């Protein structure tokens, strides 16, 4: 098991180095456009600072979650802490892409098609971000199905979960890819975000009510995602009220509040975690 832990430490570190190396090259190649945006719009210095602070906080949260995972006696990639840590790695990559997109869009040096395609990539990252949480939630629901379908094998269990995730990811990705108007894509974001997050809220509240997850506090996580849903609609309203720069600043602050609450739920354990529990397979879901 110690060898396995060392291997995963190297893999996680390697992924982080790869992500930051890729963004370093990307920023270097487009630095003239970044510099132009900073000179053109003074507020972008504030935006850059806020986003970099969020990146640092997300990195710290990622470290804490993976540290909790590695400290366990046995580790599995289906474990809640691993899935939560993966979520925050994707969040970190998403915020770095936000910074890249904001500067490219503000510089005005690139075509509408180029910036529109970048926006689509950002939306795809948002969808990718919910996959680890969807994986966790489906493990709960399908585990409950196994109570009533006794002959459901582990292979069928995994195939069912993979099929649901694949269909979800495919449908949402196709909607984003084949949307041809910026306004329509902007309108699609609240629907996509709220729709997926409502599902996540229901799953975590369900897990909390039925005591199926002992590694995290489902009630707090659910509350954090409810705030994130509200803030996604607030962002849409702000776009109609303020200019885009102020909207970005307010949205970053609101999102940080929501994800701080979600992270708190990830590291706190509910009271029922102290009770006698029976671990389900793969050490992720417990009852």
Protein architecture, described:
This protein has one domain (2-283): Up-down Bundle (Rhopdopsin 7-helix transmembrane proteins), CATH 1.20.1070. It has helices at 2-29, 31-40, 44-71, 80-107, 112-148, 154-177, 182-209, 218-241, 244-267. The chain is built from nine helices and no strands.
Overall geometry comes to globular
Determine the CATH topology. Rhopdopsin 7-helix transmembrane proteins
Terminal residue distance: 25 Å
Unreliable sequence segments: 276-287
Examine the secondary-structure arrangement and name the CATH architecture: Up-down Bundle
CATH first level? Mainly Alpha
Helix content: over 70%
The helix-and-strand class reads: mainly alpha
Strand content: under 5%
The tally of structural domains comes to 1
Number of helices: 9
- Secondary-structure element order, N to C: HHHHHHHHH
Mean pLDDT over all positions: 81
Beta-strand segment tally = 0
Radius of gyration: 20 Å
Question: Quick one: biggest sheet?
Answer: none
Keywords for this entry:
single chain, 287 residues, mainly alpha, Rhopdopsin 7-helix transmembrane proteins, 80% helix, disordered C terminus
Give a quick rundown of the structure:
The chain has a single domain, classed as Rhopdopsin 7-helix transmembrane proteins, CATH 1.20.1070.
List the helices and strands and how they pair.
Blueprint: H1 2-29, H2 31-40, H3 44-71, H4 80-107, H5 112-148, H6 154-177, H7 182-209, H8 218-241, H9 244-267
Helix pairs in contact: 1-4, 2-4, 3-4, 3-9, 4-5, 5-6, 5-7, 7-8, 8-9
């Amino acid at each position: 098991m110690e060898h396995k832990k060392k291997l995963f430490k190297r893999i996680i570190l390697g992924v982080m180095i790869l992500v930051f190396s890729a963004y370093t090259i990307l920023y270097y190649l487009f630095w003239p456009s970044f510099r132009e945006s900073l000179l053109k719009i003074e507020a972008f210095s504030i935006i850059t600072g806020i986003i970099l602070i969020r990146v640092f906080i997300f990195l710290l949260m990622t470290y804490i979650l993976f540290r909790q995972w590695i400290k366990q006696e046995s580790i599995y990639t289906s474990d809640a802490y691993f899935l939560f840590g993966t979520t925050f790695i994707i969040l970190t990559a998403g915020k770095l892409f936000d910074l890249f997109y904001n500067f490219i869009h503000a510089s005005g040096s690139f075509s509408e098609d180029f910036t529109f395609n970048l926006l689509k990539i950002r939306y795809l990252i948002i969808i990718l971000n919910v996959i680890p949480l969807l994986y966790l939630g489906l493990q709960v629901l399908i585990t409950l199905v196994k109570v009533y379908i006794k002959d459901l094998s582990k292979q069928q269990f995994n195939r069912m979960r993979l099929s649901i995730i694949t269909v979800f990811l495919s449908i949402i990705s196709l909607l984003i890819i084949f949307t041809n108007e910026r306004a329509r894509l902007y309108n699609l974001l609240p629907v996509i975000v709220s729709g997926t997050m409502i599902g996540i809220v229901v799953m975590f509240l369900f897990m909390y009510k039925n005591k199926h997850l002992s590694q995290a506090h489902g009630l707090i996580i659910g509350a954090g995602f409810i705030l994130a849903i509200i803030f996604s609609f607030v962002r849409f309203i702000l776009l109609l009220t303020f200019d885009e720069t102020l909207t970005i600043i307010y949205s970053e602050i609101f999102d940080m509040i929501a994800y701080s609450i979600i992270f708190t739920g990830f590291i706190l354990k509910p009271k029922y975690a102290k009770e006698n529990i029976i671990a389900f397979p793969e050490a992720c879901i417990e009852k």
